[in-house]
Each structure stands twice: as structure tokens, then as C-alpha cells.
Design brief:
The structure is a homodimer of 415-residue chains. Chain A is of the alpha/beta class and 415 residues long. The first copy, chain A, folds into 2 domains: 4-222 and 383-409, 3-Layer(aba) Sandwich (Aldehyde Dehydrogenase, Chain A, domain 1), CATH 3.40.605; 227-371, Aldehyde Dehydrogenase, Chain A, domain 2, CATH 3.40.309.10. Helix content of chain A is 42%, strand content 21%. Chain A is built from 14 helices and 16 strands. Chain A has helices at 4-19, 23-39, 41-57, 62-68, 72-87, 125-137, 151-167, 183-190, 205-214, 237-249, 268-280, 290-296, 325-335, 348-357; strands at 95-100, 106-113, 116-121, 141-145, 175-177, 198-202, 227-231, 258-264, 285-288, 301-302, 316-322, 340-344, 362-367, 384-386, 394-396, 402-413. In chain A, the strands form 4 sheets. A 7-stranded parallel β-sheet of chain A has the order 10-9-11-8-7-12-13, sandwiched between helices. In chain A, strand 1 (95-100) and strand 2 form a beta hairpin. In chain A, helix 5 runs parallel beside helix 6 (125-137). Chain A is globular. The interface between A and B is large, with 64 and 64 residues.
Chain lengths: 415, 415
């Protein structure tokens, strides 16, 4: 088996060649990848059937098996997504600024690739292609490490992409897959400082925590969303119910879905019953504070402390009655993951205070948190939603896979 | 003694208040800090005399004692530097972009403070003020941790700044100093994830290495510069000598000074003697490869592998003869710290290849590396020179102490 060190060395070399590839060459590679994915559909589906069968034998949950499963239609959709990346502007080589200094020294600030990007993800084979093609478009070599449940699928997909690279004359080591899916290999990858310029983990809270604790390479944390809607005393009742319902139930398994509702004491007696009625239609389990239970009755599960810190990703909602806007803001800043937070209000001052003081990538007034998404923001394809403050915050687009350098051209200037 | 946890809590609270302060209030605080520094000069000098005396007793090197020592003139210069920060544009609240989506949702991308910034630095008391006022101007609370040699000076300076904050009605906990200068407190600070939004280490390679190994908080690495000049076969001889001489000897103790010269085999026999003559005037010790010694004779110390990886910060220069541009680029990418790298050449293609393939914050053609500096780049006051690729690369200005958030204003939009 190839060691991570060897993969790192190969990736560095490939990245240097890729950094000089033109937009046209990269787009040609992307189109070839899309074509080959369609052409090699049967090989990919056969590998995927192995993964699905093994997962079912191992008692993996049906929801997870569904995320793992590929179909002809899903492979076509993956290939279409690759073709869409062709249309995106090349993020590399953009002149971001510059000047000519009084001594005649010319300074150009220009966007350049990161170099080698590592991606650790879980059992979703489509992420292997998504991640690889976004890295390719931004001239980064990538080292992919998917979950063990998807290893046959990821191997098949990676082989197809590498064949396509070879076909167009780019180094196949621009895209590599870690075969060893042990925890040890993930931790080794987090410490591969000599070769990895950036590591992007995509997965649940456990993966992100492990990366924060272990990584010595630069990291962009993504995707943990413990999001809230705060229903202010002055909230329009119907709008508040609609937003909570949408943010919770339109797709509970994604990071921009909410896990908590905070409601002002004044409006709680009329809002909570209306909210419960809407959520009951989706069989949402409510976990409430004592005041919530006093209003809604014993069908509400008493919430424990952990409930306010948990990303359920399920039809479960924690509910808490608060006495003020300030209490809501403090609760969100203490328990949230700095992803997406919403206030529903008719009060201008409260909307301004909430947006100023809530510490999150996306702060909403009177709209569902479900809009936090590269496509919905109009940013194009997205690598993930960053919940950190350094480099990228919120939806990460292609440009966030680049850094910049200063090029200084002179004629003998000394200081 | 206040624990780091307590300091973190206080800083978070102070940061929230500071995040709402107007530019005018922050500038008033800066001016008051400058005035108080001048007014309390004697208290600061007296504390500094303690540090200097202790350092001399402990056999600290004269160069280091000089960096530690404050004088009336130096305090005036520090106060003047604070006043200069008043004139810089406020980096907070800048609208960086936005749009109105087809559904009417309005998106505003706006710059916001990081929150709480930690600074670990060594025995230079002026850094305490520099760092604190740049954090203040960018609405960040800061937690400072200076080297033990400077603890009395840093305590005195911090007290003066805190008095000034109190005077203008801002929380004094916007600026806090860690009293415990043990290694353990530094490591604890590197793991203060609940409170630190960013940690900026300013110091030597040992400090930076410790931060990379230990930090779980977001970090911007600064200031390790193992920089090179590559003298190409076609280099104008006189210009090459002038640039090497300037980059090595104008200020050897700073990170943008060079530590290495690579010279093409074709020009080595005429370039190396001319370079040696210029550097001999500054008593620069040369450490060379066998070919260098064959040309320059036995006064050159044989270079060992470590010499090519060392930031000497002294009148020492490692020299290596190379056979090609490609060998030079590979050597720089393998041994450099991605700070500042220079080619001296008359060949257009070689200049383009060097700037494209050398992986560094600042890549020079025919100019001294000594220009890598916020002021020289026209960026204003500088927090440090970042040698990483994430968030900030090269000279870090005020704007790099901010992040951004998206504010989304709607009227009931759901997805």
C-alpha cells in the first residue's frame, strides 16, 4: 500500500505541474472526467453494490445506506455537476491588487492555488468527485479520504477520474485516494505538514472535533450546524411558524436546518401552540424547558442541558422560553456553532442588535436558515460551509481554495 | 493570579462591547493611550530598568538586552506609532459585497472583528503596545503574553493602556496581560478554544514550532524567514552583488533578510569572488558547498545540511552552486519558509518561471527581499509577516484581524 508520505510527495509534484495548467486544459480534464463517469457507470455501480451490501450486512442505518447508494441517475447527476464546474470562472491567476511604489518597484497581488488539499469525508461517494473537481478547477492536487463504508465506490470513482487526467495529459496524481480507512490514517493525514497545504473535513461533529484536536496542518472546519430561530416578542405569528417549520422540517439532515427554537416569554403562550400544531404534521419531537412544558403539556419531552448543544439532524427540536433578546443572544453565542442564526421580529432595534451581536457566519432577520448554501447565496459550487472565522466563513466557493502571492518586479532596488 | 479561563471570559465580554464601539470612540481611546504612555513614562522606564537589570544578571546577550531596553525616546516613538494607527481606516463594518436574491432576500457581507485575539511574543516590550492598539482599532479584545524577560515592562505598559481605556469608558479587559510567563501558560493559551478566536505568535522558529504542534485554536504563523537570492546565469553582476549585500547586511536580525545565496554554475566563478569582496566589508561568514569552497578558498566554512535550513539572523550566509534554475526552485521550495525569495536575472522566461513556481508570500525579480514589510508594501501598520497560506499571506495589516459575516434580511422567505 502506498504510504501517506509517498502520496504527499506525488501530490506536491503533481500540484506544481497543475499550477501551470491553463483554464482550457483544466476544463478539458473536467469534461473528460464527466464523460468517463458516464462511460464507466457499470464499473462504478458494481463497486457501489459491494459497499451497499457490506453496509447492510453490518447493520448500517437505512438513511446512511441511502446516502451511500449510487444509481444510474445519481451518476448522471454527478457528471452533470462536474460539467457545471467548467462554467465557473477560474479562481487562479486573478490579479487582486497591486501598485508601483515610489522607488519603481512594481507589486502584483495574484491568486494562486493552495497546493495540496486534503479532504476527509464520510460515506458519501459523490463527495469524492465534488471535492476532486473543485480542487482541479482551482489547480490544487487533492488527497481524498472517504469513510470505510464507501471505499469501493470511492476507489472506482477515483480510478475513473485518474484515467481522465491521464487522457488529457495531466498527472493522475492530481487526484489520489487514501486506501487505508483506519482512524490512524486519518490522524496521520491531519499531521502531514510537509505535504498538505490545507485540510477540509466534511462530516459530523465527531470528525470535526477529532480534526480540531489532532490537526497540525491548516484546517477549514465545515458543516456543524447547531442553529437557532429566536422568536421575538413582536414576531408576526404566522411568519414565525412558517420559518420555524421550514427551517426544521424541509430537510432535517442538513447543517443549515435548525435544532433549537428560543421564544420570548410574552409571545410563548400563543406562539408555542401554533408552532406545535405545524410541527406535529411532521411528527417532530419537542424537547422543552419547564415553561414550554407548562404551556404545551406533557407530550413535550423535558430538555436536558445536552439537548441545547446537540445537532440532532433529525425530526427533533429543542425549545426554550427566554425573558429577553439579550438572553437569546447570549444563549446562541454560548450554545451555537456560529453557522446560521435567525430572529423573527417586527422590531427594528431588536433586528439590528441581533445581527450585530450574534457571532455566526450567517445571521438572518425574518427568513429561514435553510438559505445558507453556496448556490442560494449566488456563489456557485460549494466545498462546504465554514464555521470558522479564518480565511473562509459560511459557504466556501472555489476562491477559498486559493491563496495569493505578491510578485515584485524591480530593476535593482535595495532598501 | 487570574486564570486564563477567567481572562478569556472577561475578554469575550469586553469584545462584545468593543464590537459596538464607533471609530470615533476607538480613536479617542488610542489617543488617550498615546498621551498616557508619555505621561507615565517614568513608571514604565522604572519597570523596564528592573527587566534590564535581571536580564543582565542572567547573562542575556547584549543584542537581546538592547531589544528589551526602553528609553524616553523609544517610549515617545511607541506613542507616536499609536497615534499613527488613529489615521488608519477602520477595518470593521466594511461592506464587502452582497446582493438581493431573486426571492427578495437581501444579503450583505460585512467585515466584523475576530473577537478575542491572543498574541504570544518574546522580550520586546514595544510589541505589547503595537499588538494591543492594532487589536483595539480592529475592535478585538486581546490577551497578550510576552516573554518573561519583559514581564515588568509589559505589565507597566498594559496598566497604562488599561487606565486609558477606563478613562474613555471602554472596558479595560479589552487589553489583558498574562502574568504567568511559564511555558505551561503558553501551551494553555494555545488550547483556549472556548475564548480565543485567533492566536498570533510573534517570535523565533522555536515559538512558531511549538504553536504549530500544540495549538488547537486558529493560528496565523508569522515571521520565520529562511530567504534566498538565486543568482541566475544571466544575472547582471553588479546588481546581483548589490542585492545580496543589501538583503544580507542591511539588517541581518529581521525575517526578510536572506540566509542563503544560490548561484548558477556558469556565473559562479565571477560572481562569488565579487560577492565575497562586498560581504567581507561586513565580516559576513560564508558557509559554502564544495564548489563554493573550490572557487573562494578555505576561508569559507563547509556548509552542512542544517545550514541550508537555518534562519541565522546574523552575519552568516549559506552559499550553494546550482546547475539550473529548476534546481534552485526545488531547493527553495524544499528549504525555504515561504516568506521572501528573489531571482536576479536578465532572462525573461526564467523570471516568469521563478515567480510562478516558487511557493512564497513574496517573490522578487531583481530587488532586495528586504522590502517585504507592511509599510514598504503601502499597507500601513503591520501585525507581522504571515508565512502561511490561510487567511493572510505576507504582511498582515489591520484588515487581517477581521473576519466577515453575512447578514440576511427578509420578509418571511422560506426554502
Amino acid at each position: 500500500m502506498t504510504t501517506l508520505q509517498q502520496m504527499g510527495q506525488r501530490a506536491k509534484k503533481a500540484a506544481q505541474i497543475l499550477s501551470c495548467a491553463s483554464t482550457k486544459e483544466k476544463n478539458q480534464a473536467l469534461l473528460t472526467i464527466a464523460d468517463y463517469l458516464v462511460r464507466e457507470k457499470e464499473a462504478v455501480l458494481s463497486a457501489n453494490r459491494q459497499d451497499v451490501a457490506l453496509s447492510q450486512q453490518n447493520g448500517v442505518s437505512p438513511a446512511m445506506v441511502d446516502r451511500l447508494r449510487l444509481t444510474e441517475a445519481r451518476i448522471d447527476a454527478i457528471a452533470d455537476a462536474v460539467r457545471e464546474v467548467v462554467a465557473l470562472p477560474d479562481p487562479v491567476g486573478v490579479v487582486l491588487g497591486g501598485s508601483t511604489r515610489p522607488n519603481g518597484l512594481s507589486i502584483t497581488k495574484i491568486s494562486v492555488p493552495m497546493g495540496v488539499v486534503g479532504m476527509i469525508f464520510e460515506a458519501r461517494p459523490n463527495v469524492a468527485v465534488d471535492a476532486a473537481v473543485l480542487c482541479l478547477k482551482s489547480s490544487n492536487a487533492c488527497i481524498l479520504r472517504g469513510g470505510k463504508e464507501a471505499i469501493h465506490s470511492c476507489t472506482a470513482l477515483t480510478n475513473v477520474m485518474r484515467q481522465a487526467l491521464e487522457m488529457v495529459g495531466l498527472p493522475c496524481d492530481c487526484i489520489q485516494l487514501v486506501e487505508d480507512t483506519s482512524r490512524a490514517s486519518a490522524v496521520e493525514m491531519m499531521k502531514l505538514n510537509d505535504y498538505l497545504d490545507l485540510l477540509v473535513p466534511r462530516g459530523g461533529a465527531g470528525l470535526i472535533r477529532s480534526v480540531v484536536e489532532n490537526a497540525t496542518v491548516p484546517v477549514i472546519e465545515t458543516g456543524t450546524g447547531n442553529c437557532h430561530v429566536y422568536v421575538d416578542a413582536s414576531a408576526p405569528l404566522e411568519m414565525a411558524v412558517k420559518i420555524v417549520d421550514n427551517a426544521k422540517t424541509s430537510r432535517p439532515s442538513v447543517c443549515n436546518a435548525i435544532e433549537n427554537v428560543l421564544v420570548h416569554r410574552e409571545i410563548a403562550p400563543i406562539f408555542l401552540p401554533a408552532m406545535k400544531k405545524a410541527l406535529d404534521a411532521h411528527h417532530v419531537q419537542l424537547r422543552g424547558c419547564p415553561e414550554t412544558i407548562a404551556i404545551l403539556g406533557d407530550s413535550v419531552v423535558p430538555a436536558c442541558d445536552a439537548d441545547y448543544n446537540t445537532e440532532f439532524l433529525d425530526y427533533i427540536l429543542a425549545v426554550k422560553v427566554v425573558g429577553s433578546l439579550e438572553e437569546a443572544i447570549d444563549h446562541i453565542n454560548a450554545h451555537g456553532t456560529h453557522h446560521s442564526e435567525c430572529i423573527v421580529t417586527s422590531n427594528y432595534q431588536n433586528s439590528e442588535k441581533f445581527t450585530a451581536l450574534v457571532d455566526a457566519a450567517a445571521v438572518y432577520v425574518n427568513a429561514s436558515t435553510r438559505f445558507t448554501d453556496g448556490g442560494e447565496f449566488g456563489l456557485g459550487a460549494e466545498i462546504g460551509i465554514s464555521t470558522q472565522k479564518l480565511h473562509a466563513r459560511g459557504p466556501m466557493g472555489l476562491s477559498h481554495l486559493t491563496t495569493y502571492k505578491y510578485i515584485l518586479r524591480g530593476n535593482g532596488q535595495i532598501r
